[in-house]
Amino acid sequence: MGGDVRAGVLPEGQSIRMGLIGLGSMGRHHARVIREVEGMELVAVADPVGDRHGVAGGLEVLPDVEALIGAGIDAAMVAVPTYLHEEVALALAAAGVHTMVEKPIAATVEEGARVAQAFTEAGMLGAVGYVERCNPALLEMRRRIAAGELGEVYQITTSRQGPFPGRIADVGVVKDLATHDIDLTAWLAGSPYERVCGQVSHRSGREHEDMVVATGRLANGVIVAHTVNWLSPMKIRQTVATGEKGAFIANTLSGDLTFVANGDVTSSWEADRQFRGVSEGDSVRYAIARREPLRVEQENFRDALWGRPSDVVSMAEGVHTLQVVEAILASARAGETVALGG
């Protein structure tokens, strides 16, 4: 998993002149965080519908991406609606502006592939904003999995449920919410998806799906399952990785990580001696330093711009996640498992 995200970096320590396009529900948070990150300076903002959240401060609200480029920026954060990602990102690549695009990379795989190719050909840093990778519980889970504390990973399951967010108008729950789970699962396991099967439901009267249950297998053999909706009165954000030594349980709402170890099983039933089972062993809840994920994400982008080692999400990974998303939707339409090529 991954791609070249260190091409075209800036001199380390150079103040990064940042531009932000899209001042909506996500853009307002990016504006605040960019202003807080050492080494970044928010010098230009743009949104054709204005600044309804009042985040521009003393900056002029520019009308479009061309005006943003004209402000002389080094890098940009793209937080416009998904259907505009390709148009805006291609303009930034052509202008030689390093860019992070909010998830998903684009509205379709074809659009995402064009965006990724444009940044590669321009030799510019292109990244995708999957903020869940910066959640403290998931960062700690990944570190401990990499250290071998879970042993071989067998299964990763996620649950992402809650009420409908009024900010979403152009996509369904798969491209909005499930895309997080697909990205973080491949990242935790260190493997792309091999095949998926999806079931969706339309219960809210909207054009797009509002519920999905998806299962699948990664290329390294890990099996996965995702339950995602925005029609639940309960807000749930949970990721569970089960392996040969036990299970990690991450609550990404609270940032908590718990490990439940396998206990010993002794069976006295003669016929059951061939079965290797487990029981619930010791449980440990880890004390984790909790930093705002969006700030960590922008610091990662800054470090990548400076050429430092950084765990930003490459555009190649963003395209793969979109391929999985579209495979889940295709599976739901066809009623069959869909294999992913390559």
TrEMBL record:
Gene3D superfamilies linked to this entry: Dihydrodipicolinate Reductase, domain 2, NAD(P)-binding Rossmann-like Domain
Chain ranges of the GFO/IDH/MocA-like oxidoreductase domain: 139-248
Keywords: NAD
Boundaries of every Gfo/Idh/MocA-like oxidoreductase N-terminal domain copy: 16-129
Pfam families associated with the record: GFO_IDH_MocA, GFO_IDH_MocA_C3
Matching InterPro entries: Gfo/Idh/MocA-like_OxRdtase_N, Gfo/Idh/MocA_Oxidoreductases, GFO_IDH_MocA-like_dom, NAD(P)-bd_dom_sf
The keyword NAD is annotated on this UniProt entry: yes
Name used for this protein in its record: Gfo/Idh/MocA family protein
